[in-house]
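Review this:
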Amino acid sequence: MPYDEYLEVETLDRPSAKHFRSHYLSKQIPVKISGVIDYWPAFKEKQWSLDYFEERYGQEVIGIEKFEPGERGDGRNSPQDYVKFLKFQDMKLVDLIQVLKHEPNRMYYMAQHPFRKCFRRLREDIGDNPYLKGCIQYIPGAHMDTYLWIGPKGTLTPIHQDPMPNFLIQVMGRKLVHLFPADQAEKNLYIGQFERPSFSPVDVENPDLERYPLYRDCTHYKTIINPGEMLHIPRNWGHAVKSLDVSISLSSFFITYGLLFKLLPEYVTVVMSQARKSWRWEQANERARVNPPPRSTN
């Protein structure tokens, strides 16, 4: 179907775990789920907000992705500009929050902060996700963990793939998510033809159809996730994520035991490749002590 005709992602209210697994997870179909996590303290007595994080964790040092005014935003959200202008910086969380509150033209983003290494006692603010019961949610050295995101309105992560399924959980603000089936990644999204191998070179907001003509035939899903909702993103589905408001999110990557055994040879290869890249980066930057290499996004 034409790229500019959008399919809606189905929304379910409190489906059973069995229904989710048999109709969506096993078939690798995206679905938005509501009514399941509203009871978490992060939505109630410990309601997450910028003020909440500033008061309790403001002095914590975090790593951020940073873009200065004019480097990202409407008309500047291409993958090429993302790679060109992306910088990393360590700063206190209170300083990031002041930027988010008072300098919205600066795209400063605490992106993919590992939740298990997160601020002390923050894990008490979230409850269980019933759809992850019996799944593996953490594997050292792999892209397999839960991550915290705090960032501004307007930030956009270009189309990319993640090797494992993921729940994108929205706590504050809204996010717009574009999704594309996994079997269209190479042909229609041109993934593998960009300097970041898991990214598409296509600008989801302003695609260059002369340069990437097969994009016009992709199947394009689009949905907005609101606070209290979570989106299942199947493994290897292309997706781009844009914050419509100042936003706080969690992304939980996971895998079933059956899928792990099936993918074990591929997993070992990927982990070894990541370890080699990390070692080379550390060797190249040992003296400079610069910020970490680009992290994969949600």
About this structure: The first strand starts at residue 6 and ends at 8. Residues 177 and 241 are 5 Å apart (CA to CA).
